[in-house]
Amino acid sequence: MGTHQSPPFQRRMLGKKLRELREGAGLKAAEVARRTEISTGRLSRIENGEVAPDIPLAKFLLDLYVIPVNDWEPYLEQVRAARRAKGWWQAYGVAARGFLALETAATTVRTFQLAYMPGLLQTEDHIRAVFQQLSGSRGRAWIDNQVRVRMIRQQRLHATDDQLVLATVIDHTVLRREVGSREVMQAQLHHLIEMAALPNVTLQVMPAEAGTHVGMDGAFTVLSFPGANEPDLAYIENVAGSFQIEKKSRSRPVQSVSVGFSCRPSIQPIRSP
Fold first, then answer.
1. Alpha-carbon distances of 192 from 129, 148, 198, rounded to whole Å
2. How many whole angstroms separate alpha carbon 105 and alpha carbon 110?
3. 268 phi and psi angles, rounded to 5 deg
4. Measured on CA atoms in the order 146, 148, 152, 158, is the torsion positive or negative?
5. Which end of the chain is more exposed for a tag (fewer CB within 10 A), N or C?
6. 253 with 138, same domain?
7. Which residues contact 129 (CB under 8 A, 6 or more apart)?
8. What CDD domains does the annotation carry (predicted)?
């Protein structure tokens, strides 16, 4: 499932475009809300990609932003795409907005993991062991759904159409941390070797001998999207929640870290025997 099939991502792109059109027309949000007779809160949700406007409102906005009628159709098609069916992951109880909507639309994922095995490279038994630990009071159905979602995400690594490119660096302690059982970890390590042989997967390990490095501050992921005008997005998650960095001035340091890791000679690549 690519960008054109990810309604949440389409809403995000549509919101950014509508904000750009409003600012290009020199209009404040409060003025647009007054003239369209909607609340500033609703306009904010539209521009933040949380909801999509209906077609009549979209036409009103385009007219307000002085877009010629003959140029409306590409924008209206974007509105239709943003209002289509829910993302596939919502059938499994996963929130409409969040990382999955972004990853589904991405073409490349670059990630550094300090404690966890990268989710896209985990075996089914490893995934289940992780979510059993995190389940708390949630039942078996929640665990099954989480496992299924992660397995579906992994399918893009093997796809011929809409294939995902993955470049990941993991700290050496990830390989030593037993998750599930000894047998689960043995199968996981064999799986890593198989996945590293894929042409679209780059897997490297940060050895202890590398000493202090900037990745010690925590795990992160950088997503790249199709289209020259869509900037990379840095995604950082911790025990308190998660946040995204989209502005180039703020995401560049994170991008530099991910690129720098891939070039460091001290990082050992995992290869097939």
1. 17, 19, 10
2. 14
3. -95, 125
4. positive
5. C
6. yes
7. 179, 180, 181, 184
8. HTH_XRE
Is 142 found in the same domain as 224?
yes
268 Cβ partners below 8 Å, 6+ apart?
Answer: 204, 205, 207
Nearest to 200 by CA among 233, 174, 172, 162: 162
Taking the alpha carbons of 169, 172, 177, 179 in that order, is the dihedral positive or negative? Answer: positive
Q: CA 107, CA 224: separation in Å to the nearest integer?
A: 6
Closest CA to 11 of 45, 44, 50, 54: 50
212 and 259 in a single domain? The answer is yes
> What's the pLDDT at 217?
83
C-alpha to C-alpha distances, 69 to 15, 50, 58, 224, nearest whole angstrom: 20, 26, 12, 33
- Over the stretch 36-55, which tens digit does the pLDDT of each residue have? 999 999 999 899 887 889 99
CATH number of the domain bearing residue 146: 3.30.870
Residue type for position 208 = A
Beta bridge partners of 267: none
Query: Do residues 86 and 96 lie in contact, with contact meaning Cβ atoms separated by under 8 Å?
Result: yes
C-alpha count within 13 angstroms, C-beta hemisphere, residue 10: 23
For 87-132, write each residue's pLDDT tens digit.
788 888 877 667 888 888 889 999 999 999 999 999 999 999 999 9
On average, the pLDDT of the chain sits at 84
Place of tokens 């180039």: 248
Please give the residue range of the domain that contains residue 107: 94-269
Give first-to-last CA distance, the chain, whole Å: 33
Tokens of 104: 């589904």
The amino acid at residue 25 is A
With respect to residue 88, please indicate whether it lies within any of the assigned structural domains: no
